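Exercise 7. Given the components listed, write out the predicted structure of the assembled complex. Treat all entries as one system.
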Amino acid sequence: MSISDRKRAVVLLSGGLDSSTCAALAAGEGFEICALTIDYGQRHAIELEAARRVAAALKVVEHKILKLDLRLFGASALTDDIDTPKDRAVEDAADIPVTYVPARNTIMLSLALAYAETRRAFDIFIGVNSLDYSGYPDCRPEFIAAFERLAALATKAGVEGADFRIRTPLLHLSKAEIIRTGTALGFDYGLTHSCYDPTPGGLSCGHCDSCLLRLKGFAEAGLKDPLRYA
Amino acid sequence: MSISDRKRAVVLLSGGLDSSTCAALAAGEGFEICALTIDYGQRHAIELEAARRVAAALKVVEHKILKLDLRLFGASALTDDIDTPKDRAVEDAADIPVTYVPARNTIMLSLALAYAETRRAFDIFIGVNSLDYSGYPDCRPEFIAAFERLAALATKAGVEGADFRIRTPLLHLSKAEIIRTGTALGFDYGLTHSCYDPTPGGLSCGHCDSCLLRLKGFAEAGLKDPLRYA
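Answer.
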């Protein structure tokens, strides 16, 4: 199969564990990958470096990093000056976390849709997960289905009959299952970054929601996290 | 009625004729206006100045200008190096114009939704028009309805019961009716800018699709366009 015969996909790639697994899955399906990283003014800019490492390791055909400074609006621990919660019981996170970024996945998917349309890529991969992050409204299956309906109406390609698919292979997987999936594909999680509050030297804190979920996932998968913790 | 009793709205304000009329209508309804201008790397950056003038004239409570460089993706005459069409018959524009920006209104509304959620503004005004711009898929009523359904699912506020409304008061108006509406509200169209291809000195070209639609609108409304043309 030559490169030109391969289908193309846009993958939203933050450099975190979930989006990187998504990218590995898209590569495993034989997609030619156009990776899109949104630099939305988050504190953990170190994730951008992780995204570059993952994109290179998976041999994507194109990697775009789009700046979008959502700090202009504020109102999230990831973009504003609210403290990142530490050592919370992950199982208790029924409420919407303060790390919720208003309309985050709507914005991410909109930008991915624009990119996908220009590249005639009709599969858009996003690493949302309804299990570990049940608190986020825009990680739910009904949100994804609504966006897919929107995409058909929103674009020239959609009007002309293209069938945009929002691919969410991680939607119903536990963190342990996600890690097992990527590991089975030979993906190196040492390339990724998850911590909301890394040290200046880039070590993960081990105590924010994201680190706790990650460590719990590796423990449940019976695997060792290759990242270094403070 | 004190300021704090007033309802708040986000208005997408490009500085063009349509979005400025939208803002004037929102002001006329008594909304406290949070104006949002997206600087998406378009050629006519002179529009940003128009947006600032309109925001000041309408006494908005906040005006945010968000940079989002969609030139990263290309594929539109407004963001890429494709020539702007000149002196086309406006009535013949049945095809989707080359000035179509992929997923433009999906992106604009996503960003407006994020802004609106942080400000607890549940009315979002966008100056889309299904008559003069019938070629754009994301100016159609069915697109707007789909986005409204998405907004309820996409946000914390929506999950908690807030009813986001995408307000499109210009949807079924002709350009002449839009101009008459704004003029009746006392709005000064000399503050706005429409041209896709202005001279370095800021004069409108008078020949691009946008100028032609504008001039035709003023002529049909029996009014004189206060802008200066090259």
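Discussion: The mean pLDDT of chain B is 87. The first helix of chain B runs from residue 17 to 28.
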